[in-house]
Amino acid sequence: MFQVCLYVGILTISSAYVNVALNKPAYQEYPLSLGNDMYIYDANNAVDGRKTNMSWYGGQCAVSESYKHTATWWVNLTSVHSIHHIIIYYIKGSYFEHYIDCFLGFSVYVSNTTDISQGKLCFKDNYFTRGTIPVVFTITCIVHGQYVIYYNERLQGVIYPDDYSTYAYTGLCEVEVNGCITTGYFGPNCSIPCPDVNCQYCHIETGTCQGCKPGYRGHTCELVNVALNKPAYQEYPLSLGNDTYIYDANNAVDGRKTNLSWYGGQCAVSESYKHTATWWVNLTSVHSIHHIIIYYIKGSYFEHYIDCFLGFSVYVSNTTDISQGKLCFKDDNFTRSTIPVVFTITCIVHGQYVIYYNERLQGVIYPDDYSTYAYTGLCEVEVIACKRGSFGIDCNETCGHCRDINECSNVDGTCLTGCADGYEGNLCNAPCPDGFFGKDCSEKCIATCAGCNRFNGLCDSGCIYGWQGYFCNQVNVALNKPSYQLDQFLPRDDTYDASNAVDGRKSDLRMHAGQCAISFLSTTATWWVNLSSIHRIHHITILFRTSNDGIHFLGFSVYVSNTTDRLQGTLCFKDNNFTINTIPPVFTTNCSVQGQYVIYYNERLPGVVYPVGYASNVNNDLCEVEVYG
Q1: Span 225-386: which CATH code?
Q2: Which residues, at least 6 apart from 248, have a Cβ–Cβ distance to it below 8 Å?
Q3: Left (φ > 0), alpha (ψ -120 to 50) or beta: where does 166 sit?
Q4: Residue range 490-513: average pLDDT?
Q5: What are the residue ranges spanned by the domains of the chain?
Q6: Which of 22, 282, 499, 505 has its CA 20 to 30 A from that of 486?
Q7: Which fold has domain 483-628?
Q8: Cβ–Cβ contacts within 10 Å for residue 464, how many?
Q9: CA-to-CA distance for 96 and 495, rounded, in angstroms?
């Protein structure tokens, strides 16, 4: 737990924090009992929310017996909470004046147990006197914990200030613990998630991580115990009657470290009188390991078996065979007096199995401190790896765009199996250069792309002149091919020539800009392009002259033929629906057919009734006709 503590006195703190102590279980040492009034001074009175009568007989205060050398009261918040501040309301009236010297020197702790030695000291009174201690006071204590503990003492043999009483005493009418109801959030309304996804407890004001979720550690929870609850095995497992599982291999990876004694049921222990001792955990996949922490069995049994641990080795392998793995540590130096109960091995390596091994082989001479037999007594083995996507000494650097993020070296961030689509380089942070795409930027873009997508090779930036399609594999086969139109407007002026519609120019589609094929108004309008040979056509795009009102286009047809006779070809499109308001300036029709000539045709024949809105005559006003295939 991390804390920030500040005495605030009677200052009011305005916030939206919740009193997480309200109606929670409470306890006090030496509860006062006066006849039938046992509950009038009960510990729970201090967390019931009542503050209307905080006098001696109000029945709203927790009061302890007199003539005691210690006074303890605590509330169990029932789970760990993110605390911001604590407000204490003492008993009021004449009894406050009478017992005021009993309150001097008090302390307030926040802990995850009822033991103050395992908690954080939020406040210790070394300053108040009978004339200055307030009836209501507030302590800012930014910390995480489950128990809030009020404690005071008057120990024999200790000299206290003159104002202090001979005995300690509680007279607490209400203790309000203000913080967040749910862990993993911060801010004045406890509504902002902790920034680090693996953070369980963060600073209630700043969001800085103060405690990681189970299995994670590090300043930003960047390190994860990848062995937690993974399958484990040990050679020669100890079995004592019905206590088969009390010494099971899996005990060493279950995360429990509260009782690491022989009978605690939290350790993996092997049988005695064996010449080898093997234990391993299967991480279930290859991990980027940073370091390994071993917790041996504690207490008298550590002293008893300590010589059995000497000479141990730790390997990381992709199989259960230590000969195929990497030796992370081999003890050649520890003695009975120097081997630690908790030992950390830095081993920056990739692997799936972490193997603990020891041996006392017959015929081999071992140091004098060594036992005759090998033995395991492992209460926890934590295999700490950089969390997915991080590397470096403290796992505080971010891997690049690795093809397999689990194959990012936790030493230098090298992507061991190459880069994901769109990136290259050892760290896979460099985008593909122009003209390349895919994994490791190893594939070349299609030559007809104006610039391709570096991830999938699609021609997102368009095609070079004359090509179309996602992969720019559709070419305009009409480009600069021979063309013809009936009754060209001003026949001797190339400004309106039929070839303008296949020259690729589309920058100025006005009548006199010289980029359109235009004919005189007549009863028929014909334009065609000779593709020079038969082509497999996919679609045809027509760009009409923009300054035309459209009435002369309505009813047009598009054919593909092997001759200039449209009636010998295939009708690709016949307009029966467009109006002057709906005909588009750019029109595309799909026409999956083979042919050599693409023919545009329109007519206004005598004696035929045409829809309302059609002009009485037609002409060509074609600025570009693109034939893709």
Answers
A1: 2.60.120.260
A2: 237, 268
A3: alpha
A4: 90
A5: 4-185, 225-386, 483-628
A6: 505
A7: Jelly Rolls (2.60.120)
A8: 14
A9: 107
From CA 290, how far away is CA 285, in angstroms rounded? Answer: 15
Distance between CA atoms of 601 and 557, rounded to whole angstroms? 5
Pairing label, strands 136-153, 70-90: antiparallel
Structure tokens at 354: 């972490």
Q: What is the pLDDT of residue 183?
A: 83
Local structure of residue 505 (DSSP, 8 states): -
Architecture of the 4-185 domain: Sandwich (2.60)
- The reported pLDDT for the residue numbered 6 is 36
What's the half-sphere exposure (Cβ side, CA atoms, 13 Å) at 590?
A: 1
Q: Which of 34-38, 71-75, 229-233, 269-273 has the lowest mean pLDDT?
A: 34-38
Q: What are 555's two structure tokens?
A: 């009813």
The dihedral through the CA atoms of 227, 297, 220, 384 has a sign that is: negative
DSSP bridge pairs for 167: none
Please tell me the total number of residues recorded for the chain in this structure.
Answer: 629
CB 261 within 8 A of CB 303: no
Topology alike, domains 4-185 and 483-628: yes
8 A C-beta contact, residue 149 and residue 73: yes
Side chain identity, residue 224: V
Q: Where does the pLDDT of residue 187 fall: very low under 50, low under 70, confident under 90, or very high at 90 and above?
A: confident
Query: Looking at this protein, which amino acid is placed at residue 455?
Result: F
3-class secondary-structure state, position 605: coil
State the DSSP code for 472: S
Q: How far apart are CA 34 and CA 594, in angstroms?
A: 108
DSSP code, position 111: E
Q: 195 Cβ partners below 8 Å, 6+ apart? A: 202, 207, 209
Which residue from 228, 273, 276, 236 is spatially nearest to 252, judged by alpha carbons? 228
The DSSP annotation for 365-401 comes to ---TTS-SSB--EEEEEEEEEEPTTEESTTS-EE---
